[in-house]
Design goal:
mainly alpha; rod-shaped; 73 residues
C-alpha cells in the first residue's frame, strides 16, 4: 500500500501535466493567456482532489493484487 505522501506527490505531478495540457488547449481556442491559466488552475485544482481520493480508495481494493507474505524464513 502506498503512503499518503507518495499519493499526494503523484497527484500533484499528474495534475501538473493536466494543467499544462488544459491551459494549452484553452489558449489555442481562446488566444487569451489569462483565461487559459485560470481555467487550467480551476479545473486542475478540483481534479487534484479527486485524483487523491481515487488513489486512496483504490488502495483499499484488493482486485489484481498479489498477496505478500507477512514473513519469510
Amino acid at each position: 500500500m502506498e503512503n499518503k505522501k507518495r499519493a499526494i506527490f503523484k497527484a500533484i505531478t499528474w495534475r501538473l501535466f493536466g494543467f499544462i495540457s488544459t491551459a494549452v488547449i484553452v489558449f489555442v481556442y481562446s488566444k487569451n493567456l489569462k483565461e487559459a491559466l485560470m481555467v487550467g488552475a480551476g479545473i486542475d485544482g478540483l481534479k487534484l482532489f479527486f485524483y487523491y481520493l481515487h488513489e486512496r480508495l483504490w488502495n483499499r481494493v484488493q482486485f489484481g493484487r498479489t498477496k505478500t507474505l507477512e514473513y519469510q524464513i
